[in-house]
């Protein structure tokens, strides 16, 4: 993996990272927003220590562990990636409630256009803020967006110590089973 200097990472602040999407996906995973490593590399969930890629594999979504640089292979599995908020920051707590709500509006329009079977938001707090749903919990939601069902997953950031990779993989696996049904 390429090593970036602090200055190179800081230069990636506010960059946009292209979505990995197509019409009619089975699951569109939605991160909170790109981190600086993601923005610097152009690959989603690129920060070492982020558990998205290992958990995606452990839960059975992918037949092997993909590297962030292999993100386009997700489309072949009927999977994609986007974000609630497009701009890159060092930490999610740099985002405002207004950015989350606007991101939720933009995400809703994107989901209505792309029509995935499931929208999977990784981060319950981001989901609660973006969609003004204070009672949301990890798991399937009552809400649908443009005909797509919604599932909230735990945030795979290494900072989310409440969830282990194993318990996260179980929850991702629940979604995978629902998506296969």
UniProtKB/TrEMBL annotation:
Enzyme nomenclature, EC number: 3.2.2.28
SUPFAM superfamilies attached here? Answer: Uracil-DNA glycosylase-like
> What are the recorded GO MF terms, alphabetically?
hydrolase activity, acting on glycosyl bonds
The protein's UniProt keywords, in alphabetical order, are: DNA damage, DNA repair, Glycosidase, Hydrolase
Uracil-DNA glycosylase-like domain: residues covered: 18-179
Q: Report the domain of life of the source organism.
A: Bacteria
Is the keyword Ribonucleoprotein assigned to this protein?
Answer: no
PANTHER family xrefs: G/T AND G/U MISMATCH-SPECIFIC DNA GLYCOSYLASE, G_T MISMATCH-SPECIFIC THYMINE DNA GLYCOSYLASE
What is the protein name stated in its UniProt record?
Answer: G/U mismatch-specific DNA glycosylase
What's the source species for this entry? Streptomyces caeni
